[in-house]
DNA sequence: CTTGCTACTGAGTACCTACTAGGTATTAAC
DNA sequence: GTTAATACCTAGTAGGTACTCAGTAGCAAG
C-alpha cells in the first residue's frame, strides 16, 4: 500500500513574492530572538514551507540576514524622503534647506510607527558588536555613514559637526531602547522633541 | 581489559570559588554571543569541567544568567561608591553633596575600564526587550531603578528630573555602543564629557 | 580509619541545528 | 501539447542543545 501523501495546500509562489515574505517573517523573528537565536525552522514554518524550501531561496542563514538588512536599506531612504517630502537624491544635499533637526524629527517619527523594525536594529546593533558576527562589518559602515550624513547637516566646523552627530545618534538610540522597553508609558516622539531642545539649544 | 581512565588533571574546587569562575567565564561568553547564542558546553569547557558538572553548580541555563546579573549588581554599587570615594549607603542619599554630573562621570569612568561587561549589558539589554527573554523583567526593573536614582540627584521639579535622567541614560548607553563598535578611535570618557556639557549646560 | 558530604563524571535522552542530494510537481514559453 | 525552468519536497548527514541519572572520587570531621 503506497503512502498516500496528504495533499497539503501547497502555495507555490513566484520567487520575488516568496522572498518578500521570507524577509518579512525573518525581520519579526530576529527582533524577537536576535540572529543567534534565529532558527531556519522557525522562518520556514512562518512561511509555510520546509527548511530546504527556504534554503532554495536564500542559500544560507548568513545570506538571509544580509538580505534582510539590504532590504531595509532599500526602503529606508525612500520612506525617510517621503516623510520629509523631498526627493531621495536631495536628502543629503547640502543647501537643500533641510536642517539636522528636521531630519532627526522625521527619523524619529518614522521609527515610532515601526517598533518591530527598530527592535530588529537594536538587537542586531548590540549582537554585531562582536567581531565574528555576520553583520559586524555592515553595522560598522552603517554607523559611519549615518553619522557622516547627519554631520553634513550640522552647523559649525567639522569637529563640532561630527561630535554633535554622534551625540544625536546616541540619544536617538538610547531613547528608542527606553521606548521599546516600556512603550505604554513612553511617547517616543515627545521624548525626542524634549531631548532635541536640550541638544540643539545648548550654549 | 578495563578502560584506563586518563587521569585528567582534575581541579576540584570549593563551590564558591568554582561559582566565581563560572560567572566570570559566562560573562565573557554572553558579551560575545548573547544569551541565545550561549551554550552550556562552551561555559563548561571554559571552566575545565563537564556540562553536568556545570549544571551541578547552576541548575539550569536560565539560573546561570540570573546568577551573572545578580553578581554584577552586587559589585556594581561597591565599585561605583569607591570611584566616588563615598560609602555605599551614602551613594543615593540626597544632600550628600554629590551631583548628578559627578555620578555620571564616575559611571562612565568605571565603564571605560571594563568594555567586556559593558558589552554584556548592551547585548542583554537589547535581547531582553522581548517579553519571553529570561532577563526581561530584570532589565525593566533595573532601568526603572537607575532612572529614579539618577533623577533623585537632578535639579528641578519631578517631571524635569525624570526627563533629564532618561536623557542622561540614553546618551550614556548610546555613546557606549559607539565606543564598543570602534574603541580605537573613540575616547569614551572624553565623548561623555562633551555630551555632558551639552546636556547639563543647556538653557 | 571510617563516615558522610559533595564536587564532579560518563553515559544517555530526546530533540534541534544548518545544510545537502536528488527528485517531483507546477508553471510558463513555445 | 511538449519542453524547459524552477519552486518546493523527502530523506538524510553530521553535529549541537539542555538536561537527567546513577555513580565515583576526593575532602573533612568524628
Largest sheet of chain A: none
Our measurement of the CA-to-CA distance between the termini of chain A, rounded to an integer number of angstroms, reads 85 Å
Kindly report the greatest chain-chain contact and the residue count on each side: A-B, 42 and 42 residues
- CATH H-tier superfamily of chain A: Tetracycline Repressor, domain 2
Number of distinct helices of chain A: 9
Radius of gyration of chain A: 20 Å
CATH class category name of chain A: Mainly Alpha
Shape of chain A from CA axes?
elongated
As residue ranges, the low-confidence spans of chain A are 1-8
What is the CATH topology classification name of chain A?
A: Tetracycline Repressor, domain 2
Oligomer: homodimer
Structural class of chain A: mainly alpha
Number of strands of chain A: 0
Q: What is the H-and-E element order of chain A? A: HHHHHHHHH
Mean pLDDT of chain A: 91
Please report which band the strand proportion of chain A falls in: under 5%, 5-15%, 15-25%, 25-35%, 35-45% or over 45%.
under 5%
CATH architecture of chain A: Orthogonal Bundle
Q: How much helical structure, as a percent, in the residues of chain A?
A: 55-70%
State the domain count of chain A: 1
Explain what you see.
Two copies of one chain form a homodimer. With 203 residues, chain A is mainly alpha-helical. The first copy, chain A, has a single domain (15-201), classed as Tetracycline Repressor, domain 2 (Orthogonal Bundle), CATH 1.10.357.10. Chain A contains nine helices and no strands. Chain A has helices at residues 15-33, 40-47, 51-58, 61-84, 100-112, 115-127, 136-153, 158-181, 188-200. In chain A, α2 crosses α3, α5 (100-112) runs antiparallel to α9 and α6 crosses α8. In chain A, 31% of the residues are buried. The model of chain A is unreliable at 1-8 (pLDDT under 50). At the A-B interface, α1, α6, α7, α8 and α9 of A face α1, α6, α7, α8 and α9 of B. Chain A binds a DNA duplex (30 and 30 nucleotides) through residues 5, 10, 12-15, 18, 39-41, 49-57, 60-61.
